[in-house]
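Before the break, one more example. Copy the sequence into your notebook; we will annotate it together after we see the structure.
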Amino acid sequence: MDIPVHAINELVRSTNPMSYRHFSLSCKCGQPPSRIEEVGVTDEKELVIHWWCEDCKKLVYASKTLADCWRECPEPDRSSNTFDSQFLESIGVRMD
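Here is what the structure looks like once it is written out:
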């Protein structure tokens, strides 16, 4: 079953704001990216973020293992059971 992304985003916004930690990104010159070009994953299970540094005119890749990303995730909000129930109900799943 394909669920439109906009439907999921609307449900998330209306019921439970997403908790996350941001990654601090910068080039070796210290400049943060003005725009992210691509985000992806490698066959070695790493998250890769790629951008063009406006200051030093270089292509920059930042990577982090998915295991490290997982460890840095914030603790889940225990009130998410309500969100899960509402989401499942919105896509037609009944919990008895």
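The radius of gyration is 18 Å. The chain has a mean pLDDT of 81. Try to locate both features in your own notes.
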